[in-house]
What does this fold into?
Amino acid sequence: MSHYSQKNSLVLILSSCLLGSFNFVIAQEPSISEDDATVVYPASYFAQYQLLSVSDMLDRIPGINVARQGSGNRGGPGSSQGSGRRGLGLGGDQVLINGRRITGKENEGNSQLSRIPYNQVERIEIIRGTSGELDVRGATQLINIVLLEAETRSSIAYEVNADHLHDGQIKPGAKLSLSGQNGKLDYLVSGETEPRWENRKGFESSFLANGLPNDTVFRRTITDQQPLTFSSNVGYQFSSADVAHLNFQYNQNDSPQELDRTITDYSGSSVSSRSQFEDISNESDFWEFGGDYEHIFGSGNRWRNLFIINRKKDDRIRERYEVNESRSKDIFLKTFNQYEEEIFRTSYSLNLSQNQDLEFGVERAQTTLESSLKLGLLTDKSVSPEFGGLTPINSSNAVVQEIRHEGFAVHNWRITERMSLESTIIYEESTIEQSGDTSKKRDFSFIRPKVDYRFDITPSLQFRATIEKDVAQLSFNDFTANIAPNNDEDKNTFAGNPEIKQEQSWRYDLNLEYRFDNDNGVINTNLYYQDLEDLIDRINVSTPTLIQSANGNIGNGRRHGGSVDTSYRLANFDLPQLLITARVDLTDSQATDPFLDITRPIQRQGKGSYRYGFRYDMGGRNISYGVNFSGTFDGDQIVYDIDKTEDYVRDDFIMAFLEIQGWGGLIYRFEATNPHEQYRCRIRTRYSGGTIATGSLSEIEDSCSHAGEKYAIKIRGTF
It folds into this structure.
């Protein structure tokens, strides 16, 4: 049986197990709890486990993936979600600390989970309902970490680790965090550095249209990356009605690369071989500063203010050399991007009645991208030192700025004790102005309604339905010339498109969640449908002398699918410490290709994904172990461009771990990542003499690569 047949068979078995679990669910009598909308895990619940951080606590909660990841297809084109969004919005990170969102985008609540020691936690809440008291609206579920209240408390958590890579390299890392409270002041300060060394080996075979071999390419890319991150979160309770927080994060993430390439040419009368070397420097840093202030009036109404300022800078130089006697340079490519954002938001929440509340407010976000590109090639024409001593081919500079204002109102209505309705209306207007190579100014305005209905059929069974109008945010990199993606050695840059418009969508979600008795697990099902307008994809922007494409709008499209997400503790089989998790996500999409005028799936949407694994906590022996698999279904991974198509496939991702609590109360964790090497493969089909519609087949490239296996040891402790 082939590798892919085995994978598909395994997923079919998994799907059958999930359906079997669902039938088992229907036969169960759900337990009755006092709070239908919130599941509470007190600190005592976790006493049986070996823990160091909040992240360790969450790993023991059945169904936590539903809360952490949400449901439905939220990403991809047409989405305004994620930390990469401009502005903050009503959504965001689904992790709250003491009922509050962390005022940051990169420095959000989810990033704090491994930094907060478990002994600082009073309880963990999984919030399945909606409320005007929540700082994040519209999430499927929220995780609220409630910390202990004490006059004075403090704790230090630390971790040292080392990664052993397949090429024999050993790379160290470390984490250190200090958290606590002193009177009205609470704080969390942390620093970490993690190895991201990668030695990726790849091999490519190329064939001409007549089936004869063209060439083979062996490449090795070494990336020496060791991110350094420092973050701090400080809060002060001025009174029972006034509280403020300040948050800061700095990240230095340089990632220099060295690439060796050996090309064997079979197209001539005799076989020849040559070697190339690339030196790629990539300097990157990011900082973010944010704060918030909240005042609670005597009536219970609340006034909130927050701000965020951040900046990210990337400076990249790529130089390619032919390895010969003179070591001649034939490519110089320099790109610079500096991204800055300033956000201010204010809102007011008031209680309309015992069962209704209203929040309204405004947000202003100013985002600026400064970018430049210089491309030099080896020719017999004049050279320039600014282009690495090569001939200037392309030079572009651009400044793109967006000033966006957003007014919003959210009405929350608790219709009955088991039924709620949250209605949202957002009015957004923005001005995007571009200067440099192209001068252009455009104004946009959108109205974005949303309705979120929830019904607790029983305390264990919840139904949710959502209808939402979403407007995607444009990537500023689509406006200007930039480096070519997907490691295409025949193209160094790709064009920009100042005419691109926002992608819009109507999104429909149905969700049903069942929680097993005695906290034995969760099963969650989701169905979604999305109508897409002004879909963003590759379009033709060729000139009379050059065939080229850029991101642009290709018309309407659709996306639909569903998922089953389950987590089950085998208590009925006398294995309560064995937690099995699984997810199957199926998707289908449709768009009209602008080059071939055919109906095809949306680029890189695929047919869906799956995930399964287990963890076993042997409490009496202080040992935990487990393994997790994740992958995608084969098919519908073809990317269409103006003169080529690319079809992608990859092996499953595998991670196994073993944790032992040993000397000094320390936890020793051993990890094995991708012991099978996880190959990533791509078939690229090129056309010449025109586009993929008008040209002729010229070459087929079959390429695979892997970064090898990785083994790690981590030693963690607190004091």
Q: What stands out?
A: Residues 1-35, 71-80 have pLDDT under 50 and may be disordered. The longest helix spans residues 3-26. The first strand starts at residue 38 and ends at 42. The helical segments are 3-26, 54-59, 64-69.
